[in-house]
Each structure stands twice: as C-alpha cells, then as structure tokens.
Amino acid sequence: MAQLSLGLDLGTSGVRVLAVDESGKLVAEVNKHYPLLTPRPGWTEQNPKDWAEQSLAALTEMAQKLAGHEIIGLGLSGQMHGMVPLDANAEVIRPAILWNDQRTGKAVEEMAERVDRAVMIARTGNPAITGFHVCKLIWMRQEEPENFAKVKHSLLPKDYLGFVLTGEMRAEPTDASGTNCFHLASKQWDSEILSALELSTSLFPEVIASHEVTGRLKPDLARATGLPEGLPIIAGAGDNAAAATGLGLSSKHTELGSVSLGTSGVIFAPLTEATPDPDGRVHLFCHADGGYNLLGVTLSAAGSLQWYHDTFAASSSFDELLKNAETSPVGANGVTFKPYLAGERTPHMNPNLRGSFSGLSLANTQADVTRSVLEGVAFSLRDALNVISPLTTLTSALATGGGSQSPFWLQMVSDVLDLPLTVPSFNQGAAYGAALLAFKGAGLIKDTLDLASSSHTSSVSPKNHQAYQTAWQSYQSSSF
C-alpha cells in the first residue's frame, strides 16, 4: 500500500488539495472555492469560516478518493500577510483582512513614526507595507477599537486553518517573515519592533520550522473527513516559499531562482544569509529550507495583458494578440507601457502609482500597443532584477505562470533580463511543495530536493539583450 502525503494551499480564490506519493508523483487533486469580500473600494476580506468549511469539504472528498491508501501527513500552504483576529475564546472577531487590502495607509504612517525605516528593514527585511500583517492590527486599533480590545491572538491564514484542524496555534518562518514584526536573524517575533508599536509578542503563536508538526488532526474532524485520527499536520510555508520548494529551489543553490509571469510577476532569488536591500525595494523572507529568499514583485504582469485584452481587444484571442505583437519590432515603435495598474511593489513600494501608455502617434498600430504591454511587464521585472543582482547572483531561473506558456513573451523576458529561463516540465505550485514538506516532517525524506521537480524542458537563452537597451532607456525615462 502506497504511502501518500497531502498538501493544502489556502489561496485567495479557493483551496487546493493534492495527494503525492513517495516518488513525488501527483495522485489526486481536489479544488473548492469561496467568495472574496470587497465591502469598500480598496478593501479585501474573507470569512475564515468559509476557509474552514471548504477546506474540510476538500479533505473529505480527497479521503474518499484515497480509500485504501496510507496517508502520512498534511502540509499547509496559503496566501500570505492576511490577519485573522481571535478573542480569548479563540473565536474569530471580524472577517480576515487580506494581503492585497489597501486600507492601512494611516497605520503604515504610524509605524513609520514609531520605528525608523532603516531599523525596520534591517530587522524584518522589509519596510512597513500596507498589505502586511501587523499594520492591520494597528488599523483595528485606530478604526475598530472595540474589536481591537477583544484581540488575544492574531494568526496568518494558513496558521488559522492549522488551528482549526488541530486546536494548536503555531506559525513558521516563511509566512511570519511577511508580517513586519518578525526578526529574520533570530527567526522569532521581534519584541523590539512590537514594543515600539505598543503590541505584545503574546498575540502571536510559537514559531516552529516549516517541516515540523503543528499538531494532530482532531478526532471529530478525522471522523467527519475520513482522514486518519491523529494525522500529523505540518506547519508548511507561505505560498511563494511552498511553490519554490516544489520546484526544487533551495538556499543551498543560490544560482537558480524563478520568474513567475502570473497575474503578478515575481522574481524569487534564494539566499543563504538574511541580506536585505538597504532601501527596502525588494522583499526579504525566510525560505522553507531554513535559508532566505529575495522576492521582487510587479503587481500586474499577466494581469496587465488580461486587462488590455478585456478592455481594448476582447474580440481577439490571446493567441491572436500575441501573434500580432510579434509583427512589431523591439521597442514597439516608440510606445511605452508602465504596468502600474494596481500600484507597484518593486522597486517603488507605492500603492498609488498608476499605469500609463506614452509615445503614441498616428503611425502606431495595435501590434505596437500590445507589444508595449508585454515589454512593459518585462521591464518592470528588470527593475526588480536590478535591485536583486547586487545581493545575489542568479545565473538562470525557472519560468512559471500562465505567461510563460508563450514562447514569444518568455523569450522577450529572457532577453530583457539577460537571464536564461527554463520552463519546468512539472509544476504543481504551493500545494505540491506543502506535500513535500509533509514527507519531510514524517521523516520519509531528509530533504525536499529529493522529490522536487528536477526535469525541465524548453530552455531559453538571451540573444537580443542589447536590442532592448534603447527601449529600456525609454521605459526608464517615461513619466509615471
């Protein structure tokens, strides 16, 4: 009878559960969805009850699929930065405030007044950021004092689910390092930062390693789902670190990173030491293997192409748009696009930036405009790589996300970054990495690299980097 591990990814749109065997092969998959709440412009929330209900439904369905197999553990992953406030009875006080919520501007200003920016970056790896966890607590103190007075525990989304499953509150370093109150060097909650913010470390749970056991599945939930009673629930990792684990990205091999062309664009660069950018232009987080990683983020990557298609070219397919864009030369005949449709992270860390087209003339065609969108995303990723490069040297990267399925766009990004990109032949995202961490937590493997994807196809090498220099300079000089 095969031994299987489960990986659960608590995403923004839904929960995904995978079953993986001892060879790393995907055996089964279940997906469930839940609503996103937007009570005001710029606010994003979810009901933790929905997370719990749909996760248990997914686990129940998975248990039915796996009848006759031995399940040895469940690893957790999920959306980072969200805040779940609990009272003294461990009851949810209000809907969770999510990673992409932008209500906390005044709270971030208060943090900046209380903690010097350079100190914040040196200790936590990041400046104070509107989407991170701790500013949401400060927002509650400012705007919902009656709710804040009830708060006894403040959990990250996947850690809340771990509590639901086990009755134990635990956190782990990858997710905790996205809170603005986690000391990277010691890998513990930062009492100095929290004291300056007039918050207590007692709000936050014990921190354990990503592969360690948070607790064991409660008997009533074992009966309800059909999973084994006492099933070890593994702490797991935040979504980016878990996805990197599944791809075999390790702080032991800092020359290999990843470039994601999903809704957002992400450059993931492993590090052995906690070395932040002094100006805080890229994120620094803990990696699931005990090391660290830099994360450069552009908020609208494939999301920019989706917006352009839906707004201006809905009658065309994406394949038609991309094929048409190939007829425009490097530099898009002078058209430049800034992809700041939802503000921007790296390197600007400014939620108020907005996108723009510039250089348009009567001579320009739809092909030029489409190509400018693709190039603008590539140039925004170069902004991130330019900050990352002095801190660690990537020699190649794995390309993921929907945009990486376009050979034309992938070649463009490779040329702009002057970085060889390779599409992995097997990529199952954060849930897969969480399942590998469960195998490690169960003691069946010593290192997640033993099972992570190592077979790759479609190697891409940069050939036209110099041709993009003029277009890059135009992008740099165009106004926001």
Q: And the CATH topology of the domain at 3-240? A: Nucleotidyltransferase, domain 5
Share of helical residues: 25-40%
Please mark out the parts with pLDDT under 50 across 5 or more consecutive residues, or reply none.
Answer: none
Radius of gyration: 22 Å
Multimerization state: single chain
Beta-strand percentage?
15-25%
Question: Mean pLDDT, nearest integer?
Answer: 94
CATH-derived architecture of the domain at 3-240? 2-Layer Sandwich
**What is the SS-derived class?**
alpha+beta
CATH homologous superfamily identity of the domain at 3-240: ATPase, nucleotide binding domain
**Number of DSSP strand runs:** 23
Just give the CATH class of the domain at 3-240. Answer: Alpha Beta
Distance between the ends: 60 Å
Major beta sheet, specifics?
Answer: 7 strands, mixed
Number of helices: 16
Spatial ordering of strands, largest sheet: 17-18-16-15-21-22-23
